[in-house]
Each structure stands twice: as structure tokens, then as C-alpha cells.
Amino acid sequence: MGLPRQTVVLLKTARQLAQALPADAVLLLTETNLDWDDVLQYLGGTRLLVAAQDSELTLKLKEQTGLTVLDIDPGPTPTQERMSLALLEAVAVEKLHTGAHVIVLYNGIEVEAGAPEHIDSLSVLHLGEHLERLTAQDLRKLDTQVPLETLRAVVDLATEIGREGREGQPIGTLFVVGDTRKVLTMCRPINFNPFRGYSPEERDVRDPKVREQIKEIAKLDGAILIRRDGVAVAAGMLLDVPSEGITLSKGLGSRHWAAAGISRRTKAIAVAVSQSAGTVRLFQNGQVVLHVEPFARPMIWRQFQMETQQDTDGHGNPAVAP
């Protein structure tokens, strides 16, 4: 079926960057099925990871030979959220380590909502700047208390809140996930409960529509409590937990101390969003076990010079535009 010219150029650019950095892998976020034989040929042996936009496309990709497919099934979420989920999954299944350099190819400019678009953007990421102290063992340990599906949905939501804020204004918030009965004994309401009276289906954080509503609720003071099955229980909760025996980095405020305290005294996982920087920190046993910086705008390599016979540095090496 052939590849669009811009996709071919970006694939060649990714190969050149992978060799020059060097990079550990190329991650391709795709909304459509591609000619994967051509994709692999243009990447020239560079390690490729692929993440699809939906479960149906994921199943098709798994039928292709030579592809390492990341099973994330993010649904209709923004590209940056899918990128975050794919990187998290790659580390969880030990396809990447936390200090890896990754070249990401994706559609960063949406022309028409709901319409699949071709690859048009390229970014170079260092996972050490986005996923701090995260290992596959950490994720498995977290999954024993909170299902990974629920954890992904909450981290996905927190990352979007950290990056976008609400109505153009940065906001911070705190999610407490799991061990809900014990958590409720260590907090008290400071506002009305916006989840009261709704069915579990209408409070399921794994539903994209529910996550959009929770973004509005996140503007309220207090923590948002989520059961281990992903159902939101309460919001506007003041956590009453001591901070003895907890050590945090300088500059972290009361929200992070509360997150550390509740995670130390219960089996819950606390996810704190910093209002100042949008950084998402996940706490377990009073410590930060996951650190996600909000992804910046797509980096589009418009003037990257492709390797040609004339485009070298004089020593047979490809010349790279600054």
C-alpha cells in the first residue's frame, strides 16, 4: 500500500537520529495500519516499538511479524496521553529501561477530530526525565494492591491535568487510590461529595467521559478518593495523617506531604499533581515511586537534513542539522 512521503522522511530521520545519539528504540504511535515491511526497511534495523490507537488495530498489528506491539488500548485520548501510556507499558514489560533514549514518531497535528492521520511529528525523549525510579518490579508491586488498569487511568488523568490545567489556569490535585475503607477513617470532608447518588458506572475513572468530569472536580480543594476497581468514592477530602518518618525533596508542599503520609499508613497509592509545574508524583509506602513530567508540545522536525551522498561531514558520517 506504500507509505506517505512525509512518513518515509520521518522514518529515515529517526534511523539517522538513532545512530547519532544513539537511541535505544523508536516508538511509533499509529492511528492506521501501515506497510510494516517498508517501515522496518526504512528504519534499517533500528529497534521498533509500536502502539496503536485502539484495541482493534492492536490485534491487527500483533499478526504482523517483526513488530513489538505495546498493548495499551487508550481509547480516544490525546496523543501525549497515549505516548505516556506507551512509555509506561514499555518499561513495565521490560522493553525499555528508565534511562533509555527514545525517538517517538506520531501524529501531533490533528486536522479533523476522529479522522486517522499520518505520522507528521518526531520527538526525542530521555526517559530519565519523565519516569524517575520506575522499574518493572515497581509496577508489579503496585499492581498487587491496585490493578494496573486502574492505575493507568488515574496516572493518565493526572498527567493531563498537570499539562493542561483547567480553563487555562494551572491546578494541583491529589488522588488516593485503593484501601478506601481505611483511607476514609483518616480523612474528613471539607466540601460536599460530588459523587454521591451516582451509579458505579457513572463514577468509573476508566471511562473517558468520567475523567472529563473529574477534571472539573479537581479544581476543588481536598483529595479525590478512588476505589481499587476505578470507581470514584469521594472528593474534597482533607487527609488527617501525621508526617513523622517521612522525607521529601525540598519545594514539595502540603499536598505531597499528605500523599506521602496516607500512602505510608495505608495500602493506598497516592497520585499528586503539582500546581506550579504540572509534575505528577506517585507515592507508595511514603515514597515517590513514579515521577512524570508533563509532555511539552510536539517537536516537529521540518528542517532536519536527510542523509544523502552529498550530505555528510566529510568523514563519511551523516551531517545533522542543528
- Cα(first) to Cα(last) distance is 34 Å
Tally of DSSP helical segments: 9
CATH topology of the largest domain: YojJ-like (1
What class, by secondary structure content?
A: alpha/beta
Q: Considering the protein shown, what is the CATH homologous superfamily of the largest domain? A: DNA integrity scanning protein, DisA, N-terminal domain
CATH class descriptor name of the largest domain? Alpha Beta
State the share of residues found in helices, binned by percent. 25-40%
The low-confidence parts are: 296-322
Strand-residue fraction? Answer: 15-25%
Brief overview:
With 322 residues, the protein is α/β, with parallel strands linked by helices. Helices cover 30% and strands 19% of the residues.
Helix and strand arrangement:
Layout: H1 5-20, E1 25-30, H2 36-43, E2 48-52, H3 55-62, E3 68-70, H4 79-92, E4 101-106, E5 121-126, H5 136-143, H6 148-164, E6 173-177, H7 180-184, E7 187-189, H8 208-217, E8 223-226, E9 232-239, H9 254-265, E10 269-273, E11 280-284, E12 287-292
Parallel strand pairs: 1-2, 1-4, 2-3, 6-8
Antiparallel strand pairs: 4-5, 6-10, 7-9, 8-9, 10-11, 11-12
Helix pairs in contact: 4-6
